[in-house]
Write a structure and sequence with these properties.
Structural class: mainly alpha
Radius of gyration: 29 Å
Order of helices and strands: HHH
Length: about 110
C-alpha cells in the first residue's frame, strides 16, 4: 500500500475513533436528553449509526488535515520574510516621562 494512502487511512481511522468516543460520551452523559431519546425511539440504533458515521467523516477529515498541517518539514527558502510595521493606532500607548523642572535651591 502506498505510504500516502496508509497515512490518510490511519489518520481517518483515528478521527473515526474520536467520533465513536464522542458519540458514546454524548449518549452516556445524556447531553440534552439525547441518550434517552435514542433509547426510547424505535429507530434509535439507526440514528446512532448515522450520527457516528457523519461525526466520523467530520472528525476524520479534521484529523487528516491536522496531520498534514503539522508534518515536520523545513521550508526551502532562506529568506525570513519582511517585517510589517503596525500603524501607531494599533500599538499600546507610550507613557510620557514626567520630569520635574530643574530649579536651583533658593537660599
Amino acid at each position: 500500500m502506498p505510504i500516502l494512502v496508509r497515512f490518510v487511512l490511519m489518520h481517518a481511522l483515528v478521527g473515526f475513533g474520536l467520533a465513536f468516543a464522542t458519540v458514546g460520551a454524548l449518549l452516556w452523559l445524556d447531553v440534552s436528553g439525547l441518550g434517552t431519546l435514542m433509547a426510547a425511539s424505535a429507530d434509535g440504533v439507526l440514528a446512532t449509526a448515522v450520527l457516528i458515521f457523519f461525526m466520523g467523516l467530520t472528525l476524520g477529515s479534521v484529523q487528516v488535515a491536522f496531520a498534514v498541517w503539522f508534518q515536520a518539514g523545513e521550508d526551502q527558502g532562506s529568506s525570513g520574510g519582511r517585517r510589517m510595521r503596525l500603524p501607531a493606532m494599533f500599538l499600546p500607548p507610550r507613557r510620557a516621562l514626567a520630569t520635574a523642572p530643574n530649579r536651583a535651591p533658593r537660599g
